[in-house]
Prior knowledge:
Elements: E1 7-13, H1 21-33, E2 39-45, H2 57-60, E3 64-65, E4 71-72, H3 75-83, E5 92-94, H4 95-108, H5 118-131, E6 140-145, H6 155-168, E7 173-180, E8 183-184, E9 189-190, H7 193-204, E10 211-216, H8 222-232, E11 239-243, H9 251-257, H10 260-267, H11 279-289, E12 293-301, H12 311-323, E13 326-334, H13 343-346, E14 352-355, H14 364-376, E15 381-384, H15 386-398, E16 406-407, E17 417-421, E18 436-444, H16 449-454, E19 458-465, E20 467-469, H17 474-479, E21 482-487, E22 494-499, E23 505-508, H18 523-542
Parallel strand pairs: 1-6, 1-7, 2-5, 2-6, 7-10, 10-11, 12-13, 12-14, 14-15, 15-23, 16-17
Antiparallel strand pairs: 3-4, 8-9, 17-20, 18-19, 18-21, 21-22, 22-23
Amino acid sequence: xxxxxxxxxxxxxxxTSSLGKGIISASLGMLLxxxxxxxxxxxxxxxxxxxxxxxxPYEHGECYVTEDGAETDLDLGHYERFLDSPTSQxxxxxxxxxxxxxxxxERKGDFLGKTVQVIPHITNEIKxxxxxxxxxxxxxxxxxxxxxxxxxxxxxxxxSVRQLRWELGEGNSMVIHLTLLPYLAAAGELKTKxxxxxxxxxxxxxxxxxxLVCRTEHKIPKEQRAKLAQFCxxxxxxxxxxxxxxxxxxxxxxxxKQHFDRVVLQELNLxxxxxxxxxxxxxxxxxxxxxxxxxxIALVGKYVSLQDSYKSIAEAFIHAGADLETEVNIRWVYSxxxxxxxxxxxxxxxxxxxxAPGFGDRGIEGKILAAQYARESSIPLLGICLxxxxxTVEFARNVLGYAKANSTEFDRATPEPVISLMEEQKNVVDxxxxxxxxxxxxxxxxxxxxxxxxxxxxxxxxxxHRYEFNSDFLPEFEKNGMIASGTNPETGLVEAIExxxxxxxxxxxxxxxxxxxxxxxxxxxxxxxxxxAAYQKQTAIKN
Length: 543
Ligand code: GLN
């Protein structure tokens, strides 16, 4: 039997950045999957960093980590959350990585003395990276091209798509162009001209858009749709409106109402006989938008002015909250502002505290104060990665009496290095791609809180850190009530800690938030929400 052929969908963006190509791609992927197709989504990023792992979250939002340990763009988080299926290094490619591969080949002499050029060498490598995913036998691969049409950086990608479309032949690929219809209040009109121009620009590079998805704040009148169709060479039904909605999770449903998925399948010569199965998605959305109770969690971090920095955590609260019909409001607390004098006031009224992951010493002492406050006041606390390390330092200082205890990330010469580097990390010089990354097994202690939460003894979670709990100190921690409830079965490294005599005081060295999806909310977030809701109830009775 011949191998089935994979269909390719390319998503480009025009007019401005930040139109939400990631959400549109994820929504389309979800709709196609709900029709029974196997789908994956890939992002091509036009910047020269090898991956976003070395980027400050202020620049590009959170760095999302996949099962295979790739440090990727935050859009991959949306893909996984919408599709409920894992992505990998192959799902995120940057210009830096493309050039690195081509230059390495050049050094090896693989080009046999030829002049190495953007066309064909760079474009061939881009095409190879796009097609690589077809080896996994997907029905459909959606490739999102980062940046905006017309950017110098995007040109090789657009050219590669042009070549690939030609090679794949008619009916096997399509282009969706996401564009903006600005509203001119003075004229009371949505304007189509910028979209016409960006479609024309795409055509100049040899790409014809098959579908237009138009971001808009207002409904698109019939005449405007007709105008766009006429000027941009697309069918009227291929002009899709993407109007602002209350939550990103409503986007697929809005698109489906306009038969976006059917239009796409028709363009790809695929059957459109059945409808997508959206019952569970609609049920999730209903519970999310009609919660029965509401809690407030303080998210203590140092990137608080940019919520994209903690994207997966915020989304994990949405998935788990919806499942429990609980609205989770996040109070963003900048740890750099916390002092012993204001910590009680700043955290007053919250029902739970989450101490966020992070790097570097800015705001560290504030996080330690928050951990101490939550421990002493019996407020539920979840510490993630750096958050767990902070809980460890706090406990060492204030319970074990090691006044100078620290992580060697912040104080190399601390006499009590309760968090320290593993031997193999000590000589690492490169920053990029050298941490403990990706999925690692973890064994949970029988009858621990964590084991009850997961309902299993062995779990696997994703990591992204360099420093570790220093096991030399473990016996003393355990003697004083802080136990290692999760350990790595191969290395013995401590992966999770919890306090025995506290309603919920759990720190995890891994990142549970990366594995939370709409279809599979994370049990640890659910347990934390339940504990916070219980604390809220109990404090309400007291007052
Ligand atoms: N900076 C810490 C480490 O490298 C924690 C990292 C994190 O929170 N992701 O170990």
